[in-house]
Amino acid sequence: MKKKIIAAAMAALMAVSLCACGTAKKADVKKVGICQLVQHVALDAATKGFKDALIEEYGEDGIEFDEQNAQGDSNTCSTIINGFVSANVDLILANATPALQAAAAGTDTIPILGTSVTEYGVALGIDGFSGVVGGNISGTSDLAPLEEQAQMIKDLFPDAKKVGLLYCSAEPNSQYQVDTVKAALEKLGYTCEFYAFSDTNDISSVVTAAAEASDVIYVPTDNSVASNTEIINNVCLPAGIPVVAGEEGICAGCGVATLSIDYYDLGYATGKMAIRVLNGEDIGAMPIEYAPQFTKKYNKQICEQLDVQVPEDYVAIETE
According to the model, what pLDDT value does residue 15 have? Predict the structure, then answer.
């Protein structure tokens, strides 16, 4: 009888021990909330790169992602962020400017890393931005060399006179980009006109107006544009108006050429920053990081249809 009691006690002790181990292991799992503004090629690639970097570091069992998509709605971003705050995640990835803005408004304690954000000073209303946000925010920028994108238009379309600048007025970083490109193009002798749409309801009419009045259209890294490239292409291609894009995903859908970053690499770099934060580094002291390289790329199919000749140093965009 005594042996049975001892055996039972040992079994109970082992069960408690196993439970304790299981609890400790669960406590060690890093919880990361991912708020992505909308589903499109560039943002999807950034999210994947981010997750891959963390999985490489912590393993499949050491990291837990709560990945949510706001379907292009800023208010939904806020709802998602509030859920992350309630769940007390260890870190938030805000993929695109509205997601970053929602995260910044939602918490000042949980570390926030942005990605696919063009200019943090503009996004967060920071005057005289120095490259370090401070507080609980840092991240990576997808800002391309805008003056070089303007020069690309000059190189490809030297005889063009009028450039239409197409963008979503609801995205402050898009306004920043087209303002910068406009100034650069005007120095190169072009006449530029803004064509802003507020949402998907008026994009078709705005694109039509731009195509009728322009020799070339420029679109920045704009999430609303990226989600509506088919509409843009259906207007511009039949009209014979080439589109120069701020990033590869947009170019693949409606453009002829771009000077673009690799969004997977950008997300991966953000994941590496997340590892440093999760391992104890002060996010408030981490400067915004930028893409290390840019590649001139072109859309082979659209270039052929519009008879656009591209230099040999351009790389064809791979399509499925």
Answer: 46
pTM tops 0.85: no
Cβ burial, residue 215 (10 Å; 0-12/13-18/19+):
middle
The structural domains of the chain, ordered by start, are: 11-142+263-287 (3.40.50.2300), 146-260+295-316 (3.40.50.2300)
What are phi and psi for residue 165, nearest 5 degrees? Answer: -105, 105
Q: What is the dihedral of CA 148, 287, 174, 220, to 10 degrees?
A: 30
Strand 295-298 and strand 257-260: the pairing is: antiparallel
State yes or no: pLDDT of 7 exceeds 70: no
Edge-to-edge order in the sheet of strand 289-290 = 63-69, 30-36, 91-95, 112-117, 137-141, 289-290
- DSSP H or E segment with residue 79: helix 74-87
Of 130, 84, 118, 87, nearest in space to 104 by CA: 84
Q: Of 102, 107, 151, 101, nearest to 126 (Cα)?
A: 101
Per-residue pLDDT reduced to its tens digit, 24-50: 335 589 999 999 999 998 999 999 999
- Residue percentage of the chain with pLDDT more than 90: 85
Run of H or E including 216: strand 216-219
Give the SS3 label for residue 310: coil
Return the half-sphere exposure (C-beta side, CA atoms, 13 A cut-off) of residue 119.
24
